[in-house]
Amino acid sequence: MSTLSLHKSKIKVLLLEGVHASAVETFQRLGYDKVIEVKGSLAPEELKEAISDVHILGIRSRTQVDADILSAANKLISIGCFCIGTNQVALDDALHRGIPVFNAPFSNTRSVAELVIAEAILLLRGVPEKSANAHRGKWLKTAVGSYEIRGKTLGIVGYGNIGSQLSVLAEGLGMRVLFHDATHKLPLGNARQVKNLNELLQSSDIVTFHVPEHESTTAMMGKDEFQQIKKGAVLINASRGKVIDIDELSQALASGHISGAAIDVFPVEPRSVEEEFLSPLRQFDNCILTPHVGGSTMEAQANIGVEVANKLVKFSDNGSSHSAVNFPQVALPDHPGSHRILHIHRNVPGILAQINNYFSDNGINISSQFLQTNELTGYVVTDIDQDYSQMVVKELQEIEGTIRTRVLF
Which one of 8, 104, 354, 386 has the largest count of C-beta atoms within 10 Å of its C-beta? Predict the structure, then answer.
């Protein structure tokens, strides 16, 4: 695909799932006027139709952008996930089409960490069950089974951006912190990394999950793990819905082996607020159920809107792919008076040499250039300091292995 970049006023942006108004404001402030907002997600066929003439797509966690959806995205240059996770996008397929995917890995970490602390306190005090009974007219005034959080052990599974911030908050409340991670991590404060998940489960009063969706994390809390968890512990999941086996969790709650749970993410979630939420966990008063709102605070969503929109605009304006999750990382400052050409290609030997040969053969001087690759794809940003002909762009597109070329300015 070879294209001269459109003027900002003609670039179409589609934002789904009620992306925060700060994103719209950011796009418009930076000159992007064609912003279309949709409050909910779209069914696959609706999305395929809607995406056919869209240049920039913004989604949250519910919209699934698979290979079939991408096949209909004839003009798409980038995707923004206005959340932490990107597993809802077929990242490799997007990469093969030269489409970088951006997210917000830091903007809602505080929101998730605060919710986990709040849920841990409520569960240790037995508040969910007492509240449910009070709504039904039953007065459960007792201190039996009600505990302070101070002095308890918090076990964090996944010591990334959220897990590490949660660790700091927990220690500030007087908790002891253990964590388990697939790689060795430098602990913050007095937190201690344990050698395996079973050790964490056996030693923790509260177990909370903060891992990405991956084959290795699917049902990582299953039958065997529930047998290992400390009797009377509470379990919290604000990461991904497939991490915990819901049926095994239901059995652990029914038997009283764990004293409570708080679940924010589920294997299957409603597509909209009109669809009924179905789960075997609805029967348990000592299980807090929240509709995937771990990062859904006004502060977090506003920050995410600004962060992701700025990344999408930078890629559209100057080709910067810095912080894209599936794409080679390239960032160059603007060079006034020059023309910028982007070349995305399969990562095979010799393509940069061919690109530069074409410039040389046409008497075009390169004022600056940057190449970055990953295992599948190469991305070259080239600034030339004189006018060029469309024939040069056509020749660049015809280099074997080219995915996309684009002239920015």
Answer: 104
